[in-house]
Amino acid sequence: MKNIVVGQSGGPTSVINSSIAGVYKKAKELGVEHVYGMVHGIEGFLEENFIDLDDYLKDNDNYELLKRTPSAFLGSCRYKLPKIEDNEEVYERIFDILEKNEIDAFFYTGGNDSMDTIKMLSDYAKAHDKKQLFMGVPKTIDNDLPITDHCPGYGSCAKYIATSLKEIIRDNASFSKNRLTVCIVEIMGRHAGWLTAAASLAKDETGEGVDAIYLPEVEFDLDEFLNRVKELAKTKSSIVIAVSEGIQTSDGKFVCELSDSNRAVDSFGHKQLSGTATTLANIVAKETGLKTRAIEFSTLQRAASHIASLTDINEAELVGQKAVEEANNGKTGMMVTLIRESDKPYVCNTNVFDIHDIANVEKKIPLEWYDKENKQMKEEFINYAKPLIIGELLPIFKDGVVQHLIRK
Fold first, then answer.
1. Is residue 194 predicted with pLDDT exceeding 80?
2. Catalytic residue among 113, 116, 142, 312, which?
3. For the chain, how many structural domains are there in total?
4. For labeling, which of 140, 161, 219, 355 is most exposed (least CB within 10 Å)?
5. Is there a catalytic annotation at residue 142?
């Protein structure tokens, strides 16, 4: 491979840049001349907006700083490629740009929608006898890509959720029962509850965990929820409940829509969700008279590189390296997958899999891992998730503040 290009797409994570670092490192080891970065993903690519990663990553200090930098160093996008039959000109332009810049391989880091981009580009290349190779590098805090055991980005987000909830639990338990507060914490997750399930990791031998966990995979019953809060309030001086932003009632309505049904949608048709915790807190306060507090982790859960999982960082770098290695061997139209060999000790290897079995497929939590009656995660989930949050990579500080690598 003479030159390659790599881009980032969709919601950022605290370790997505480690995958960019991995792509760059392996490519340079294999003698690739130029590793270009798309500025703002495929959208920037169509505008021929590239940077040469040599300008940033030849310096090893910058390489290490990039691994500690959250969000998308190259810039992200939510650009949906049209169907080939609807607008072939877009694809012709993409391949003209690839050929003009002598780019042999195209790497895209992202989740379901990003893998759809890889699928369509590899399909077009095959149908038109193009030589360029296309590889997907998995990334999503939602952990909902199929085939792979888990997704880079998830472990660090789960670590942040568990840590923050431990702190919230301690704070909420500060007062006596006559000042009981019902704290409802909203965690990302539209249809898959992997992140909300991570709330269960806050429980350990030193203290209590959350009182209930509500996943989007299970129909939300408002009456059951209110009754549970009332029962907990009889014996507890503090109540902390974790809810997914995507929980829905029996009629398919998102809980956040109970107070506001007019929601904007993005370019992929995804309804924008927020306010679930606030909606429920208001209902609890009205129906029970209890003091309530709503907390929405929002962007914090995916940007907290200061508490990223070292396991997650290392695996994010590894999948980037694997993608380049497999492309160098002629593979295309595939995504790198993580294959768990064992939990204790934790051993995980990499492989690649056909993108057609991955793109637009959503993996949800196995319901047998969820105690529906008690609204808690079972030991099977704990054993699955715990290894993914292990280890830390100390941030680089200057004047007491963490430092990041910034694109000029």
1. yes
2. 142
3. 2
4. 219
5. yes
